[in-house]
Amino acid sequence: MRQLVIDLDHVDATIRIYRPHIDLEEIRPKPLPPRHQAFRGQSSRFILDTLKAHPDGMTTRELARLVIENRGLNPEDKGLSRTIV
Hints:
The protein is mainly α. It contains 4 helices and no strands.
């Protein structure tokens, strides 16, 4: 923990070199993206490709399971399955 505080002090000092009068309290942290968020269009592209590969169709649950597996998530997680379906 001590080393992390020292590292942050070094970052603050570096910022002050370039902007001596900056108020570091004004700098807000960027919000973290939600866990398991896909890149823009990633899920749509996978779903369309999967549906094209299965011309007979598939259920929403089957498709959701494939999306979960493709993303490297746990397909046995019931809460995640309900969220995606």
